[in-house]
Amino acid sequence: MITLQDTLLLSGFLFFIGLAGVLVRRNVLVILMSVELMLNAANLALLGFSRNLAEGTGQVLAIFVMTVAAAEAAVGLGLVLAMFRHRGTVDVDRMRGLQG
Amino acid sequence: MSAVLFWIFGVAALVLGMLVVVLPNPVHGAVALVGNLICLAALYAMLQAHFLAMVQVFLYAGAILVLFVFVIMLLNLKREELGRPRVTASKIAGMALLGALGWIFVRALLALPRVTMPEAGVAFGTVEEVGRLLLGRHLLGFEVSSVLLLAAVVGAVAVAKRRLW
Fold this sequence. Notes:
The complex is a heterodimer of chains A (100) and B (165). Chain A has one domain (4-89): Helix Hairpins (Orthogonal Bundle). Helix content of chain A is 78%, strand content 0%. Chain A contains three helices and no strands. Chain A has helices spanning 4-24, 28-53, 57-87. The termini of chain A are far apart. The model of chain A has no long low-confidence stretch (mean pLDDT 90). With 165 residues, chain B is mostly helical. In chain B, helix 1 runs antiparallel to helix 2 (26-46) and helix 2 (26-46) runs antiparallel to helix 3. The radius of gyration of chain B is 21 Å and the shape is globular. The termini of chain B are far apart. Chains A and B meet through helix 1, helix 2 and helix 3 of A and helix 1, helix 2, helix 3, helix 4 and helix 5 of B.
């Protein structure tokens, strides 16, 4: 049988993979995909708790997380497009106009 | 049986997630992310969240990833624009801190008692029950999320449009 502990372990590992992607990669598209990985890890934990408590509110919260992820992807990719058009790069290390 | 399947899909999701982070070409990463999301949908179904599993395949693996692949193809990055992997001191320090955090996390979880999940009702996770909760107790959040989506659509168009002002 699946235990809550297994679900949380898996969700935590997925979250750490996403976090490592955000920290290590400098391509903004890969960074956005890593953020999606982290959001999905949070969803997995929510659904695990929801199943453990036999209470549907966690699933509703997961739906909200998916909505926010869709909004984030739309705005984020729009920003990537604008950034590429102005600077001709998707490398976040080369976007340092505000660094002084 | 279900635990074995859970770990098969779970390990597949972890491997595909690592591929997203490791592969240099973002198109390959996006394909790995599709696989990862479908494995997660299988896990959701095993947690009796059938509606969420379906939405995961439709919305994530369908809509959001198509958007990602569309933008990646539109930018059409050349090999030299993808950038070389650079190893810096701050990255090594970040990875070490992440490893320490992961170790603390695993220790904390393994200290928890292992209890199998109690039986959920037949209606748990169906469209009917999720819909009742979403449009009943959480109606305000539902409406706010629709405003958020509208703001995101307008914002994305405003940001990505070539000459708005």
